[in-house]
Write a structure and sequence with these properties.
homodimer; alpha/beta; TIM Barrel
Chain lengths: 269, 269
């Protein structure tokens, strides 16, 4: 991988520093935050501010899921703007938006994530093909995780269809990502943790970094998953959202959150 | 198709009234609006307000492309909120956002489009499968156009891959949409106008309504395309964005816009 990419080099540093592959998913849900906070945009922002201030020494990245902010209305997006500024610049922000569209629209989408919110990385849906992904990759100092094999049951519907070539569709997506990565040097894949295909997918290209959701609430195990999915720089981003954020409704939530991270998502070595 | 669906029944009425299949795409770009307007959010909103006030008798729907509003920052989204309220309730709003994600996220995405902006229909990316699309379909009084075969060159990369089953991926998507439509009664497909496959795709399911981009700036012909893509209720939504919005930079833009619509996008019969 391209060690000069600012996102990737920060991830390498943070992985060494924290002895963890943990990316904390910020999926704000006013109904799930600790009881001491008002279940509103304001209360949620206070909660997430505390989360960031008390976990940035323990994780390698944050992944705000923009849809959860959008569902709180435009005030939710203003909150996202402020939180993106609050996150220390050493901890990269993957703005999980799963965009992708024809060229002139994709340019607007990329500008939204990188110029408006100042994200360091994006997630991109590859369905519509190269000209819908490349406007993201043109942001060369940013990093882009392309959906390949996701952690949900619906992955069977299209991603896991067998092509006439003998490859699965997700394998074709990964091959295409390898090609894009050779040109741009800033490409990774989203690979779900709950999949039995983890080992074979990892063998397909040992260099691409994976962003791996599905650990925690969705059932994947952190240690097994990280061992199976690290690339040849020992890099993987294991995303946990609900399993960290909503660990307790009581006033002990920060202690519990840190304890869970250290116990479950940090290497004992 | 389900004639009781509020979106679909409005489209039928509007098609008869206007003798047109035209859906006007609202893709605001401050640098392309007529010179009399300031190239800002404010100027763009004034321009789009005039467009809506002067074309709603000539089109069957509006399709704001949310990415163009997002790229103008959060003020751009506030503008979208106001414009959605301005559009007469007889003219449905397809909010083109191409979302789709695992269940709990897709619910948030659908809520954003329908509860926050009050859209009547959405566009959905099917890549991640059924559980990522169904939270949209659960909004039963709304309508949902699933990406199947798009108008860009990148459609060759994945959509047009041949499956082991002997079908193309886009044919498999259309088959799945037919199945979803049997359950939910509110499903259509996005099919690009520039494709040689239009006739065969139309034969695959004569009931699904198509939303067809690619006419105008992207090269497709309106009359040929609408003849080839109408369903068995004579319904199709032909989207034109740049070919209507940016027809003139001069003060005659409203006259020119109406003339172009009547001349190019209205049936002479």
């Amino acid at each position: 991988m391209n060690l000069n990419n600012p996102f990737y080099s920060k991830i390498i540093k943070n992985t060494k520093r924290t002895k963890s592959h943990l990316c904390i998913g910020l999926d704000p849900d006013p109904l799930k935050i600790p009881s001491k906070f008002e279940p509103s945009v304001k209360g949620t922002e206070k909660f997430l501010t505390e989360v960031i201030q008390n976990t940035s020494d323990l994780c390698i990245a944050y992944k705000p899921n923009i849809s959860f902010f959008e569902a709180m209305g435009i005030d939710g997006l203003r909150m996202l703007e402020r939180l993106c500024k609050l996150i220390p610049s050493t901890i990269p922000i993957i703005l999980d938006a799963k965009r992708g569209d024809i060229g002139n629209t994709a340019k607007k989408q990329a500008s939204y994530l990188f110029d408006i919110f100042g994200a360091d990385a994006s997630t991109v849906n590859p369905f519509m093909g190269a000209d819908c992904v490349e406007p993201f990759l043109e942001y060369k100092d940013k990093f882009h995780f392309i959906l390949a094999l996701t952690s949900n049951p619906g992955a069977d519907d299209f991603e896991k269809l067998m092509l006439k070539s003998g490859k699965f569709l997700y394998e074709q997506v990964i091959d295409t990502c390898s090609k894009w990565n050779k040109t741009y040097g800033n490409v990774g894949c989203v690979i779900g943790a709950t999949k039995s295909e983890l080992a074979s997918v990892r063998k397909q290209d040992r260099t691409l970094p994976f962003l791996v959701p599905g650990v925690g609430a969705q059932g994947g195990d952190y240690h097994d998953t990280s061992t199976q999915t690290k690339n040849d720089d020992d890099i993987v981003l294991i995303n946990v959202s609900r399993g960290v954020l909503y660990i307790s409704k009581e006033d002990d939530y920060l202690d519990k959150m840190r304890t869970v991270i250290v116990k479950n998502y940090t290497s004992k070595v």
